[in-house]
Amino acid sequence: MKTLPLLAALAAIAWLEPARILASPIQVYGLWHCGCDFCAWATIRDMADFDGKNHWIIDRGDGSPSVNLVVLSFVNPVKLLNLANDAGTTDGIPKGKTRRLWSILLAGKFG
After folding, report:
1. How many domains is the chain partitioned into structurally?
2. Helix locations, 23-89, DSSP H
3. Could you give the CA distance from residue 36 to residue 63 in angstroms, rounded to a whole number?
4. pTM of the shown model
5. Does 14 fall in a domain?
6. Which of 13, 14, 25, 100 is at a distance of 20 to 30 A from 71, taking alpha carbons?
7. Is residue 18 part of a domain?
8. Do the Cβ atoms of 66 and 60 come closer than 8 Å?
9. 72, pLDDT greater than 70
C-alpha cells in the first residue's frame, strides 16, 4: 500500500515530463552580411546579382527563410550623427543600404 502513492507520483512525472522536453528554447539563426564592397555598403547593389548570391537567405528551397536575424554591417556612427553626404553615404547611411534592399529582406521576396 505504501508503494501506491510512489507509483502515482512516478506516473504523474512520466506523464508531465514529455511536455517539458518537447518545449523548445528560443533559437536564433543569424547572419552577418557584408555587401559587395566588403562591409562598407558604399555602392548600390544590382538586385539581380544580390538575388543570385543571397536568395538562400530568404528561401532555403521550401519557401522558408534560412535565418531569422540579418545584420547588415556597418554604419559609421559619427557619419550618421552628422548626417554626412559623401562618396559612400547619404545622410549618414551607406548608399548600398537602399530601401529596395531592406524591403526585399523584410518581405522575403525578390522581384
Report:
1. 1
2. 47-58, 77-81
3. 25
4. 0.59
5. no
6. 25
7. no
8. yes
9. yes
Cα–Cα nearest to 58, from 111, 99, 104: 104
Measured CA angle at 99 (ends 64, 57), to 5 deg: 20
For 94, the domain range is 28-107
User: How far from chain centre, in Å, is Cα 50?
Assistant: 16
**Other CB atoms within 10 Å distance of the CB of residue 73:** 13
**Which cell is 80 given?**
550618421
Reported as a single tens digit per residue, the pLDDT across 17-62 is: 555 555 667 778 877 777 778 778 888 888 888 888 888 888 888 9
Omega before 110 within 30 of 0, i.e. cis: no
Residue 81, pLDDT > 90, answer: yes
Q: Which residues pair with 94 in a beta bridge?
A: 89
Residue 15 located in a structural domain: no
* Confidence band, pLDDT 50/70/90 cuts, at residue 83: very high
Q: What is the pLDDT of residue 85?
A: 96
